[in-house]
Amino acid sequence: MSVLQAEDLASIRGERLVFRDLSFRVTDGGALLLVGPNGAGKSTLLRILAGLGRIEAGRLLWRGEDALDDLPAHAARVAYLGHLDAVKLGLSVRENLRTWAGPAAVAEALAAVGLTPLGDLPARLLSAGQRRRLALARLMLRAAPLWLLDEPTLGLDAASVARFGAMLADHRARGGIVVAATHLPLPLPGAEELRLGGA
Question: Cα separation of 182 and 192, whole Å?
């Protein structure tokens, strides 16, 4: 059975039709890659899937029910990573994660992204790639089955991408779903691909 399903979605930004008649299905443990040129609507679609954007036509379903009928319930099942890392620069690396989980889970998440040695460092001193890894660590601490990722490997080196691949595999092995917009290959074996923009 499909867990996440879109039926004939349409979106308008300003006075421009971004996409229409967009349909797809993702099952437990599945992954969907959103590909296409800049401006094709990948980020717009992710925001719609997160309940942050407006649908002009069509339906978004979660396990057969309208996903957006109850926005607080939908928000609880979504972990969204946009272009911005949402890192609080005045807090330490560890403190940025403590609002989401206890010490043991935070330690596990920091280890998963290779940031354990930097746990007490103020986040403002992190490089762009390290801030992205901190944002990825936050994904692990959310009990959300649906991960929505916008260019998740932006700024990551090869070792960090490999660690991220392990995170994705673990999430999917537990039945989680990943929908990711990307211009670069992602470590998501078996992922379906949805091309936007007709390119």
Answer: 13
198 pLDDT band, cuts 50/70/90, is low
Using CA atoms, how far apart are residues 97 and 39, in angstroms rounded to an integer? 32
Separation of alpha carbons 1 and 196, rounded Å? 25
Q: Find all residues with CB under 8 Å of 47, minimum gap 6, and list them.
A: 53
Q: How many domains does the chain have?
A: 1
Q: How far apart are CA 43 and CA 49, in angstroms?
A: 10
Inside any domain, residue 132? no
Q: Which two tokens stand for residue 117?
A: 């040695």
Quote the radius of gyration of the chain (alpha carbons, Å): 17
Give the DSSP H or E segment for 43: helix 42-49
Domain that holds residue 27: 2-91+144-195
Residue 53 maps to a domain: yes
Tens of pLDDT, residue by residue over 2-57, are 799 999 999 998 888 899 999 999 999 999 999 998 888 999 999 999 999 889 99
Q: Which CATH number goes with the domain that contains 31?
A: 3.40.50.300
